Amino acid sequence: MGYTVGMPVMKLDKCNHFGKKSDHSGNAKAVTCEALEERYSSDADLDREMTAENLYYGFTSGKALTAYWEQMADDYRVIDKNGKGKKLRSDAGIGFAGICKPEMDFMDSLDDDEIEKFMVDSSEVIKEIYEKRGCVIDSIVIHYDEGNPHLHYFGHDPEYKLGRKLGLKLYTALNDKEYPKQMRQRGWDIDPLTGYLETTKNMTEDEITEYKKKRKADRKKKHGLSSAEYKANKKSNDIISEANAKARIIKKRAKLEAQLENAKELAELEKQKTQLKAQEAILQDRLMEIMEREEKSLKLASEASEVYEKAQRFYLNEQNWMNIQQKEHLKKYNAEAECQKHKSRQIPVEFAELETAYKQQATDTDYNY
Asked: What confidence tens digit (pLDDT) does each residue in 285-301 have?
């Protein structure tokens, strides 16, 4: 025997429902703001310290969601038999709200990851059921801040025919047919939740009597043989469920504190990482400066080497030129010395006088031809 999940649904409108109790309709803004991030709730089971653990999909604000519905409803026009468009009635359903509330014993048997997986699977099945009927799911919230984790969902009908669509067929699909079937296909032990009227509507009087006896026997088997035992057992189960809910909240809170601690550690590591990156940038700049200086030094060294080689070649050329000049000078000097040597020899007197007379004659002689 598996577990059951309660799936009530109500129509939401813009009317004032204060002081009126109805399971079938409610004020859109009041209902959405009670379940979504505004959390306008006075429920004694609400633990606001755990509200941060709630998970949201789609719209997170009840005020924003209601404004969205109201704007679409104001823009919508109903075409009458004469082809004229007119606004919706003031009490028309602009949206709907539903709850997916599993048995507490079932939730107590699951760990946190399994609870979240169950809720995600439930939301996917619920969206599919409504989409088949032309409705749109606008917001889903999973509440962890109350005793028993459960799911709220909100949506609207673009055709504005909620009066027809939120009926027995939808109730049967959610509680008895499609939802339990698909959840079992996903591995969850969910039984159909069949209503008394739905179950007995095609029975004869004898079959109804037999069904009542069977239900009574099942209740006795489940709860005990006497009213006192049933009440005592129920009280005991309530105490156990409350203890499990508190334990779950404590576990969630411990997990949240651990996440916060990890977040602080991550923030510190991120800070250190940022500092290291800054230091790395400074070191990189310094390395670039050193590399630029080294490059300039190598360039200067290369230029100096070229200058030195040019100077050395010039010096060698100068040395060669000086050696050549010295050789030429020495050769000339030797020639002059040799010539001087010949001139310094003594010439006989008679030859010297003859030479002088010859020179004089050459000077004074005038050649006339």
From this structure: 888 888 888 888 888 88
